[in-house]
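USER:
Working in pairs, take the chain set out below, taking as long as you need, and write a paragraph about the fold.
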Amino acid sequence: MQIKLQSDNYHVLLNTLGAELNSYSNPSGNEYVWNSDPTYWLRSSPLLFPTVGNVRNGETVIKDHIYQMPKHGFCKESEFEVTEQTEDSVTFLLKANEETLKHYPYDFKLYLSYHLNGSTLSMDYRVINKDSDLMYYHIGAHPGFMCPVNNGENIENCILRFEKEENFISYEYDIKNLEFNFDHKVSQKAEGNTLPLTISMFDQDAVFFEHTNSHHVSFVNAVTGKGVSVYYPDFESLAIWTPAGGKAPFLCLEPWNGSGIFHQDDDIFAHKHGILTLESGKEKAYHLEISLIE
């Protein structure tokens, strides 16, 4: 079911399937969120939980049992219920159920609230451990944004601008074995807080910057300065991704708490890189903002 929000002639379209952001347009009708064209990527902004990225061979060990775990978790295929809704806000809820327990043996509640205030969309995540055991999890966002380019331009006409200087060192990704490697790092060509985007930097899938100094990044056209910004104060890392080859007209900015597997990881979920813990009866909140730069 689709949910529409509006504020000052800005419009957002959301879906109860995955609590996913499908559209964000300004008063002029310009669209900023990827349209889920399956030619390149059939998602637009999946919620990543209880894992960011993959587990080895799609299997992981939790509470001494082997579970099948989809890449980025199961939220993208889960129907959320709507607990609150106004003209400019909505709250989605996913509770542990028969299907989630097949992959993840914890009793939990996961809320995602959206609030639209004109050119800024706030997203608030809340994880509650209803289980009697300590709960292990990752959480992340994966919004895809249309490239702010003119005809004849592509992603290489765009830059990422961070609020602080970064070292722009990422872990090399082994596309064959689907894993990062602590021992192999790549230094991206950048200046200060600005990272020019190139098609070749995505040849091996996502670029993962762990523990960024910044918690605010802008994706803009290098000439016009137009695009989007993402504020991620409660997320430690940022990944960026577009399909290899440079033909897809979008880029994902992915704030992560957690990551895909590393070559050095074993198959125990509690040992996964960047794993988070939540005690029984406790909850944890995470905030994110998307702003349009017009």
In short: The chain has a mean pLDDT of 97. Residues 2-36+46-293 form a domain with the Beta-galactosidase; Chain A, domain 5 fold (CATH 2.70.98.10). The first strand starts at residue 2 and ends at 7.
